[in-house]
Specification:
By secondary structure, this protein is α/β, with parallel strands linked by helices. It is about 25% helix and about 25% strand.
């Protein structure tokens, strides 16, 4: 069976590697165009492209697949390539481009998506972030037959994992990427045997995982400590939750809930030392921040951070 693969970030690259290592024939990879990144803003290939190039898999990078969109000539060229490339199914993982019906209908077995949530919960762009932010006890991966709606297609398989108290978006991402790679290999083997069964998504329990905006990173310390703790974990590594101290934005990378019951003004620094970390009063409860970062600096344990940025007695806003 020939599998055309479409994906862009590391989550997708893990799935591509799993399919490649399992011996599937991958005649073509679609990924987003190279993007400027880093201080020099030089063009960087996506993790999916890097893997494909390293393993001599042909790569296409159209900016659009919509024939009636902004780039009809590019989309038409991409469609011609898809029609000319023999394949049975397209596997899609965090590709980042909308697949119109004209693309979904090209493969014999359609397009199959690896989605990092327990559908129908957290359809959309940021399911990992939103699951942690909402305080979900578990997450997982759903293998889904794609249709034109946003993550509305029938489910082919689903597996669950617990979200730990220490999990961040970074750590949960890695767990789900590994799980997704295993599951898509299993799904493709079942598809080859004609043993893959689709089940409609439940009509109840639908939620949407909106794309993360940088503006969300600013913490409102009048909120309960538990809400802020979840946001710190959800926004690690992007966009990085922060609060402002004397006009300086300070990012909080690692924190825990403190048992301190304080009536202090939200944002007040209750303690700042190597033993206690940075203890901050919230709308209710308190946060103990263990890893911080000032602008232009490195992520540092609280003890190291405080050597160059004293906080004792001050207040975050």
């Amino acid at each position: 069976m020939k599998i055309l693969f479409a994906g862009t970030p590391e989550f997708a690259a893990v799935a591509l590697k799993s399919l490649y290592d399992a011996g599937f024939d991958i005649p073509l990879v679609l990924t987003q165009p190279d993007r400027p990144a880093g201080r020099g803003m030089q063009l960087h290939a996506s993790p999916v492209k890097q893997f494909a190039v390293a393993h001599d898999i042909p790569v296409a990078q159209p900016v659009s697949l919509r024939l009636n969109g902004k780039y009809p000539d590019i989309a038409e060229e991409a469609h011609a390539l898809l029609h000319a490339t023999p394949h049975d199914v397209m596997v899609v993982a965090a590709y980042g481009l909308i697949l119109p019906r004209s693309v979904l209908e090209i493969p014999k077995y359609g397009c199959i998506n690896i989605h990092a949530s327990l559908l129908p919960r957290w359809r959309g762009a940021a399911p990992i972030h939103r699951a942690i932010e909402a305080g979900d006890a578990e997450s997982g991966v759903t293998i889904m037959q794609m249709e034109e709606g946003l993550d509305t297609g029938p489910m082919l398989s689903m597996e669950r994992i617990a979200i730990g108290a220490e999990d961040t978006t970074a750590s949960l991402h890695d767990k789900l990427a590994e799980l997704g790679g295993k599951m898509i290999v299993d799904a493709m083997r079942k598809l080859e045997r004609g043993a893959l069964t689709a089940v409609p998504q439940p009509e109840e329990g639908v939620t949407y995982a909106a794309k993360i905006a940088k503006e969300e990173a600013a913490l409102d310390l009048t909120q309960p400590a538990e809400v802020l703790w979840r946001r710190i974990r959800a926004f690690n590594p992007f966009p990085g939750a922060y609060a402002t101290f004397n006009g300086v934005p300070v990012k909080f990378w690692r924190a825990e809930l403190a048992s301190t019951d304080s009536s202090a003004v939200p944002g007040q620094v209750l303690a700042a030392n190597a033993q206690d970390g940075v203890l901050i009063a919230c709308g209710s409860g308190a946060l103990r921040v263990r890893e911080l970062q000032k602008p232009g600096g490195k992520r540092l344990p609280a003890a190291e951070f405080l050597k160059g940025f004293p906080l004792e007695g001050g207040r975050f806003s």
